[in-house]
UniProtKB/TrEMBL annotation:
SUPFAM superfamilies tied to this protein: FAD-linked reductases, C-terminal domain
GO molecular function: flavin adenine dinucleotide binding; oxidoreductase activity, acting on CH-OH group of donors
Residue ranges occupied by any Glucose-methanol-choline oxidoreductase C-terminal domain in the UniProt entry: 131-242
Cross-referenced Pfam families: GMC_oxred_C (PF05199)
Species per Swiss-Prot/TrEMBL record: Eutreptiella gymnastica
Protein name: Glucose-methanol-choline oxidoreductase C-terminal domain-containing protein
Amino acid sequence: MRALNIPVVHHNAAVGANLRDQVTVPIVYKTKKGLSYDPQNVTTSANMWQYLAAGKGPFRSPGFEGLAFANPTTVPDASDPSSTPARPTVQLSLCCGGGWGSGVGLRYGCPKGVFDQFPEAVTVLVTLLRPQSHGHVTLSGARDPEIDPQYLCDPADVPVLEAGIRLVDRIFRNKPLSQFVTGVRTNYNVKPDPGDDCAGTPRTAPNAPALTVRSAAMPGYSPVGTCAMCPVGGRTAVVDSETLAVEGV
């Protein structure tokens, strides 16, 4: 701050630190014709008037038709009545469309082709609920701050997303959803788990999920942590969790 001629009232290294944001990976599956929201067939005047007149049709869609929370790495013991599911590590969001190309994918930094390949498709967003990676927000000049989320820098984050991708793949490769999917999704494929119903579906290298995470991940836009509320004296405290007073001021 002094380098930018901003007077320092109190130094607190936690200000702007501990930036955490969820990371999401879009998984796109091609569907049979007429089952998904192809933008060319959805964005019509007839569909618009149907929604305005009767509140029906594709424009009534909330955006995500399905939502699930899962922990794909921990399964409760069915034989033990006291066994309970572990808390979720990923969120799965189902959208009945292929992302609608550059209108969504390129806007969020996804490589071209992740969404564009299948105009009729469904997309599942695999979102990391509790990222271990953390970044920072700092001043870098008189105008724009430096925002560095440090996505996937903690080695613990990638395996969780990999497990989420494998779970989604297992769901779509088996009934009932397999009857609606006509092709392997975009050019990032995962190796199915043993026992999956994968007839006619090519298998790929075991490290494919990690490559998918690294190449197709995009921001989840849920940043938190740079102004942490903690008990007085907490290591990452910026404001007091009870009074919201700035720590040290």
